[in-house]
Predict the 3D structure of the following.
Amino acid sequence: MPSDHLIVHRREPLNAEPPLDRLRANPITAQHDFYVRSHGTTPVVDAADYALEVGGLVETPLRLSLSEIEAFPRHTVEAVMQCAGNRRADLGAVHPVLGDPWSAGAIGNARWTGVALADVLRAAGAATAPTLHVAFTSLDEVELGGASFLFGVSIPMAKALSPEVILATTMNDEPLTPDHGYPLRVVTPGFAGIRSPKWLSAIAVRDAPSACPMQAENYKLLPPDMRSAEAIDWQRGTAIDEMPLNAAICEPAVGTTLCAGPCEVRGWAHATGRAVVRVDVSGDGGTSWRQASLEAQPSRWSWTFWSIVLELRPGPCELVVRAWDQAGQTQPARPDDIWNLKGYLSAAWHRVTVAVI
Ligand SMILES: Nc1nc2c(c(=O)[nH]1)N[C@H]1C(S)=C(S)[C@@H](COP(=O)(O)O)O[C@H]1N2
Ligand SMILES: [Mo]
């Protein structure tokens, strides 16, 4: 069960995110403060009966118990998990989108411990050509477009062999809770959360992406001319793997009334695999900018917390943030320019309107 303070968008399946001030309280997000995004009901798994199948294009198909999996070398990766639909509410304000209206809390940063997916693939003698795909199947049953099936997605082989991709049993040194994938989940740092299956039951090496509708007919970036559900042609969509540079203001909250004078503005920035090198904050809707102080980014895959004290004058005030990455790239100014029907990859400048008296 999620803790009471999560903002619930949907109970069945569970979709909930923390209030942004709680999210900004600690660079490691506690499990009970971590957003939950599930597509079906949470499976109840007895660890004693659990087994992971490894098959497809492998020399030796495997069936591994939990203790056999835990016997592989252990690795810990500090990494962000972020839903492709994080900040969808901003795109929905431009033109209606399909999906829950996430604010900027469908993201969290945790210390994940488990075993390298590459080691498990090697133990099975998997084919490793870069054109191949590693497909995952989970224990949860999902309904989509009137059909019902087991959750399944895939990642390209090159990513699957990267050392940061792990099969995790713990999150922040605690066993995964049922909502976060107990007893075993994939963690694919730098990719959208959809590529990190919870309740993992099978791995298959394939010469094509997963055939599951969750891969083939969902989590795709659609072109802007598809403006309603009837207009969707999944073939023309792009599968979402890597996530764009993004940043959000967590404090103060939207609609707060503040006293004129110094005001601390705080938030997160994330460049998915790159470093965040600069965060600009504006107190006048993006006309003038100042640079925030950045906290250390402990791992290549984690986020950067930032803060700045702005001097606010009485009147309506629009706070804005935009981040810059190591490649000198920044975020688009307007959500209008990146609108897409499914409301994914919402990464325009984040704006928070407050009143100053
Ligand atoms: N088996 C399974 N894995 C899943 C999902 C799911 O519904 N079923 N949701 C995915 C999505 S869309 C996201 S964003 C992340 C969310 O992980 P969390 O709930 O632990 O935060 O899990 C991913 N893995
Ligand atoms: Mo997601």
Summary: The first strand starts at residue 7 and ends at 10. The radius of gyration is 21 Å. The pocket of MTE (ligand 1) is lined by residues 34-39, 81, 83, 138, 140, 151, 180, 193-194, 196-199 (CB under 6 Å).
